[in-house]
User: Fold this.
Amino acid sequence: MKAPLQTQPSSVTDTVALPEDVSLRLADRLHVHALRHGRATLWNRLLLGLTLIGPGILVMLGDNDAGGVVTYMQTGARYGIGLFVPLMILLGFVAYLVQEMTIRLGAVTRRGHAELIWKRYGPFWGAFSLFDLVAANVLTLMTEFIGIRVASAVFGWPYGLTIPLGALFVVLCLVYLRYWTWERISLLIAAFNLVFIPITLFSHPDWSAIAHSLVGGGWILTGGLLAPAFLILLSANIGTTIAPWQLFFQQSCVVDKGLLEKDINAGRRDLMIGVVGMVLVAMALIILSGQYIHGQAGADHFSIGTMIHLLKIRVGPWVASLFALGLLEAGLIASIVITASTSWAFGEAFDIPRSLNARPQQAWGFYAPGIVSVIIAAGVVMLHGIPLGFLNLTVQVVATIFMPAALLFLLMLLNDRELMGDEVNGPVRNTLSIGLMALLILCNALYGLASFHVLL
Amino acid sequence: MKELDEYDPQQIRTLLEQEHWLDPLPPVRRVPLTGWQRAVFWGLRIYILIMIVVVAWGFSRSVG
Assistant:
């Protein structure tokens, strides 16, 4: 819980009254300092590593959200164990390329993403980027609550109860936990995201097909590279790997955790762990679906509920239950991190207190946008008769079309020597990032055209 | 994890100085976007608008 506000000169500094968020962050930093400069035992090294993890793992496992789980399953159902399995490894590198930049930007400038855009390029462009983020976040939050609703149905729990409970949990975590506790609880929930790996391992995966797919086997694309279905799934998979909220979230998280330039390498290790987890989970889901759903009549259009039912029949009831729990967790952890990213972005843009360490009565303007976004998203998903499957697909598209603009702001800031000093981007990273932006626009445009073509 | 008051005051003062926790951050100077940057961003906004119209149209067709 958040500590009481210190209004008197602090006994620890004798002459200086520390703002509450600074005093809590300072306690976190002292813990890091003590471990870093203490005895170099294996235990201390391990504790230091565990203390410094957080933003990278949260952003990448939060990235495997409910919408992502559905997308990976749809991908496996349509294309089986083939091209998309190794493609996930490539997308892991893409995610690392993009997210690593936010670590440097946050650690060097000690400012959040929204704040930098707002102050560097003015409120006009700042408002544009904030609007993009909030619109994408509210829509993405809907997919998280869709995941919670679908998982509830598997257990026979009424979604009228589970969705409000999920929303309440997310809000309570945001408002009443200090950064450190919020991060640790979120990490515990995020760890459950890995449940999809043992589910697949214990489902007797076809190892020869998996190995074959890694060296070019089974890369059969019905309809070719320009088939609408392939383009849609390619865009959706890219969209689930990199999204605007991830840029804003990780940078704000780095700042609120108090990571500095000297922690950049630790931040990179944290991110790498998260990326490996993200890739393994994505591959596990595609393999599971590719082995047990692909090839079934009508598999291309199965809903996630139908897929879970098929897994129950073909693999066993335990798979369906664990899968539903994983889906519930995916929705919950993504809701937690996306809500935080909304609050952080508002706080940074309007230059108001913006730390999870701040007490609600002193930072209501920071917490309110996050809370409102959760209420809107949960409310929409509770509506009766809403087409959940297509809403999920639509949201994935909308979220991805905001990405190129967000990436361009990121690149401009990373090339700003006045802000970044020696930590500016090198030419290789810039070239790769610009190439990625062009690819994103191409994929999104083709996706739009494909959707248009299919719907006509 | 220990609370702040449980640490040695000298250790806290040292860290405050070393990591500049009480120093104000350097101001971020406003830099207007150049002509080509504005053009690219407006292009991206038009692209977003078109895509949203396409997606909204697709969604309404699906619901309908």
Notes: The helical segments of chain B are 9-18, 35-63. The interface with chain A takes residues 1-5, 7, 9, 11-13, 15-16, 19, 21-22, 25, 28-33, 37, 40-41, 44-45, 47-48, 50-52, 54-55, 57-59, 61-63 of chain B (CB under 8 Å). Residues 4-63 of chain B form one domain. DSSP finds two helices and no strands in chain B.
